[in-house]
Design goal:
The protein is 72% helix and 0% strand. The protein is mainly α.
Length: 258
């Protein structure tokens, strides 16, 4: 398993995907800061229209990192190239056959690659808020650094992990099912726009509790959430992980990968 993980990290490094993701984050953060200098809630972009709580965190200081997490829809888009390069592109370039024939079980291969993708479900939000904090300091000036804000940010990100990992599992399943990078991309984009549309039109449905597109937006108000709502979010995430792993492993193990 370790050799598979090491090889995929090397592939990501050589492909410069991580560099392009960083530049993409910087571009979005630069645009957000440039466009919305007049008020709080900078860089939430589309997510701002779906906030179920009117609280905004100030533009200055480390609370901006919490505000940034309300842009969860932006972060989810950047998981697409990770999933594709770690797993789905192996079908396109036929390298998956080499991995399977190299005395690794298909279940081991699947779980190894899912582990890498799951790790980036943690890395990308952390990278996003750190870059956003730096950008906010450049635009708005340095005020204060508070450890409590950093701890809150980490708690929010950890709470969203099950939901994100479960969604990544569905992305992988779709890609394996159709053996297509495009299928994974289209599924993720169409799902996001569908959730954004439903959340905007049908405001009585609180999708943010169970939906990866808006869960960080919802969890940004961690101090205002009841324990039951937090448990509900976690429960849905773990159920999604279980379903996606079962479907993904079944399809990967029992279908021809040629």
């Amino acid at each position: 398993m370790f050799n598979i993980i090491k090889a995929d990290f090397y592939k990501l490094w050589k492909s410069k995907i991580l560099l392009w993701i960083t530049l993409g984050f910087l571009g979005i953060l630069l645009l957000g800061n440039g466009l919305v200098q007049g008020g709080d809630g900078v860089m939430t972009l589309m997510s701002d229209s779906m906030n179920y709580n009117l609280v905004h965190f100030g533009k200055k200081g480390t609370q901006m990192m919490i505000e940034l997490l309300k842009g969860s829809n932006v972060i989810l888009f950047f998981l697409i190239p990770i999933v594709i390069n770690v797993f789905i592109s192996d079908f396109k370039y036929k390298t998956i056959k080499n991995t399977v024939s190299y005395q690794y079980s298909r279940t081991t291969i699947y779980l190894s690659k899912m582990l890498i993708c799951a790790l980036f479900a943690l890395i990308l939000p952390v990278l996003y808020v750190i870059l956003g904090l730096v950008m906010s300091i450049l635009f708005n000036g340095f005020v204060s650094m508070r450890l409590s804000d950093l701890i809150t940010v980490l708690k929010i990100i950890v709470l969203q992990l099950p939901l994100y990992i479960g969604f990544i599992g569905i992305m992988v399943f779709i890609g394996i099912l159709f053996k297509s990078n495009m299928a994974t991309t289209l599924f993720t984009i169409l799902y996001q726009f569908m959730m954004i549309f439903i959340s905007t039109i049908v405001t009585s449905i609180h999708l943010s509790e169970i939906d990866p597109v808006t869960c960080l937006d919802h969890l940004a108000y961690l101090n205002n959430l009841s324990t039951s709502v937090i448990y509900k979010t976690e429960f849905v995430g773990f159920i999604l992980i279980l379903i996606s792993l079962t479907l993904g492993i079944y399809v990967f193990c029992y279908r021809d990968i040629a």
